[in-house]
Structure formats: structure tokens, C-alpha cells
């Protein structure tokens, strides 16, 4: 485990458009992620959470400031960083089976048999051991997202970026997937950064919650969730530390809401 943060955002700035129509989205975003942590990013709707994630992943560079991953500046998608997209149906190859979708992400000199064995292990880990040879269109939405998560882990990344990965699944599947992601993060010692619009999800899953302001977006505050790594959908959500962190995050976000006209 390295000294210092695994990921740093330093004074990130991003705008779209030109002239009078130019709109500032990110206005000096700075925060860090330590190795082994699970960090969640929340903020008001439209504040640029996905824009921030794209900059962190090296997919859409910021106009100013810098991102550093393992001490090196990110100018393009770095090796060791994986991204799980919100729209899992578009991120999977429909002509590849679940097994081949996962092996596609694997780099390195290992042979086909070794890659298949590793992919099978990961699909079993996400509860899809009986769906190895099924195609995405034969799987439910929750099952497709499990394939996408297994593929992210297959890349043997040091950091997994999750862009609202559970936004499109039903409530019960969402709770099950939250616990699955937490279990996988601990089992594979995975550092995670989750972008979500769901405050309850952020507080339940994270060690630290980064709260963004409305646009032009800055970091409003960082809130440490005073809970251990083990989480439970009932006991954790009733814990005083969970309730306190939830209150703090909600209060910050609600303060940015525009008043509703009578």
C-alpha cells in the first residue's frame, strides 16, 4: 500500500460552450482518495458529477487543474483504473457471452485458459456462476450490471470508478447490489469511488462522502462516516453514526436547492 493518496483531484475546472453561452461546470474541485477506501461523491442534480468522473478517468480532461493517479498526472485513461458505467446495457458487448465480456477486459500475458478461469471465478463471485455462457440480452438488468462489475474487477485495477451503477435497478436489487459491491471491495481489497445521487446509498456504502455544491461546482464539504467496513442494511441504517452522517449530507445538499415559488 502506497504512502499518500492513490487518487488526487487538484483544482479541477471545466466549462462547456463559448462566449456568452459558456457555462462553468467544475470550479476548482479538490479532494483525494486513499488506497483501500470507499469514497462516495454526491451533490445536487446537474452539478457535474459525471463530468467530474470522466475527468478523473482521463476520458474528458479538465480545462485546468490536474488529476494524479498513483502520483502520476492523468492525461488519458491510465492502466490500473477501471470504470463501471451507469448504462450497463451499452457497456456490454451484446454479441459476447458473460464470460467473454469479462475476459475481454483482461490484460497481460496469461493464456486463454487462465483468463477464462479467472473470469469464471469473478462471475461466480458476483452470483452468476450459472450464466457464464448467456448473452447480455438473456440477462436481467441487475445481472447485466453484475457482469459489468465483474469485468471491472477483471482488469485487476487499483481503483474502481462507479458512475451511478445502480440507478436503473429496482429497490430490492439495489440493496443486494450495494452489499455485493461492498463484499467484493473487501474481498479483492479494491479502492472504490462511487458517484451517486442517492444520499442513503452514499452514506451506507462509503467511508467518506464528498459533497459537491450546485454549479459552478466546488467541494462543499467532506464527511467521514464513522462506521467500520462491515455494513448491514438494517443495523447500519439504524446506527447513530449513520444517521448523523446522513443528516449532515442531506442538510448540505438541501441548502443548495432553489426555493420553490408559491
What do these coordinates show?
Helices cover 34% and strands 23% of the residues. A 6-stranded mixed sheet has the order 6-7-8-3-9-10, with helices on both faces. Helix 7 packs across helix 9. The longest helix has 17 residues.
Which tags fit this structure?
262 residues, alpha/beta, Rossmann fold, six-stranded mixed beta sheet, four-stranded antiparallel beta sheet, 23% strand, globular
SSE blueprint:
Blueprint: E1 7-16, E2 23-33, E3 38-42, H1 49-56, E4 64-69, E5 72-73, E6 81-84, H2 88-91, H3 98-103, H4 112-125, H5 141-154, E7 159-163, H6 171-187, E8 191-195, H7 199-205, E9 208-212, E10 219-224, H8 235-238, H9 240-254
Parallel strand pairs: 3-8, 3-9, 6-7, 7-8
Antiparallel strand pairs: 1-2, 1-4, 4-5, 9-10
Provide a brief overview of the structure.
With 262 residues, the protein is of the alpha/beta class. Helix content is 34%, strand content 23%.
Mean pLDDT: 91
Order of helices and strands: EEEHEEEHHHHEHEHEEHH
Please give the largest β-sheet: 6 strands, mixed
Shape descriptor: globular
What is the strand content? 15-25%
How many E-type strands?
10
CATH architecture grouping of the domain at 1-44 and 56-80 and 161-168 and 192-233 and 249-261: 3-Layer(aba) Sandwich
The CATH class of the domain at 1-44 and 56-80 and 161-168 and 192-233 and 249-261 is identified as Alpha Beta
| Unreliable runs | none
